Amino acid sequence: MHFRNSALKPVIEATTSHAKKFARLFLVTATALSLVVPNVAITSAQAQQKKGLPLVRDAETEDLLREYAKPIFRAAGLPAGQVEIILVNDKSFNAFVPDSRRMFINLGVIMDAKTPSEVIGVIAHETGHIAGNHLVRMRQAASNAQIMSVIGMILGAGAMAAGAATGNSSVARGGAAATTAGGAIGQRNFLSYRRSEESAADQAALRYLDRTGVSPKGMLKTFERMADQALFAAQYVDPYALSHPMPRARYTALETKAKKNRHFNKKDPKRLQIKHDLVKAKLLAFTSHKNTTYRAYPEKDKSLPAQYARAIASMRSDRVSKAVKKIDALIAKAPEYPYFYEVKGQAYLEGGKPKQAIAPFRKALSLYPGNPHFEIWLGFAMVASNDNRYLKEAKTILSRALRKDKYSTTGYAQLAIANARLGDVAGADLATAQSHMAKGDLRGAQRYAKRAQKKLKTGSPAWQQADDILSIKPTRLNRR
Hints:
Number of helices: 23
Distance between the termini: 31 Å
Strand order of the largest sheet: 1-3-4-6-5-2
């Protein structure tokens, strides 16, 4: 599992620039269409603008979410591969879509959900926004609201000027009020539009769940929890100043229809529930203190998820030998589960024994051929082993993985080291440039791309990759 700041910063900034503009204009969370119901009109949009999204990469979690999402995307009529699911390292319960190609899901969605259908319901809701083309419509609604605000300001300014010219203070005060009211009317109309789109996404989600044979009970459970959490705050919130329907009203609108669904009492497949529980345990162990993990999964709990959580907690706090012993006990119970070998390799790698990490990463890859996460781990271990016999293989493996996962800063960094040790200076510079690009550092990326291009054959694929980086204009990444 890799934790990092936004490696997709250029992508996020490019796809949300218009939405951020509207957030500033109307003081609402217009960066994306989101599942969560804010208690007030302002939530995390401004914070995200300042520091970017903290993303996390994990093969097991991403694979589980893709398994959840694939039938939903098909039911919504979305082409295979159109939507990429991206994990956000945030324990709050939230998910959002900034455009038609990306869905961001907080770790908190999985960590809070007791069943797969609760997470599938979240994915179905966000899919409703994508299939309904809500982002494009939202921008048009925001534009219309802006026009209303401008009209109000013009009319108000005219009245203020007339009052000042005639010395009539009441007229001037009325003009000032009209200026303020124009913005308020525009904002409320825009928020009303947002509430209607959220309700439409809820109804679309119910249709997708029905088509895929998933019980809407999980989705209903999610909205019930949201309604309960917002119960106290709702007493003091103007429902028309929110971009989402009030939680209890939203729950009520769904409850009757959901309970009539033919799949309502259908349980999630046992296989899927086990995978969900394993990922949930893994996320808690990786994001919490050891004591928190042991309170949630005490020694008396002998279930596989509990052992998984304790093994990861041990990996992060104990000696390597102690952690590996616990991981080997997991492997003995499920020898065909590739992610246990991945964790074992990570334990060795982070414990300062990279050469010993090679075998478990190879095993994980043999059980899940072509997985780019496992390939990057394996290449990393080979490079870190300081054994030059592995360098050429490491370069091949890392290059193959990065063709499938273009945002792995770790993969590019290790490829740069492998190239440098093999004497390929131009390749090392190009990989370093790509690593900077993945981190959103355009200036650093172009500095190394320029160095690489000077050493590369003009027109070669590597030369073209460097040229692509050099052709990017800073305003495309840094505009607000």
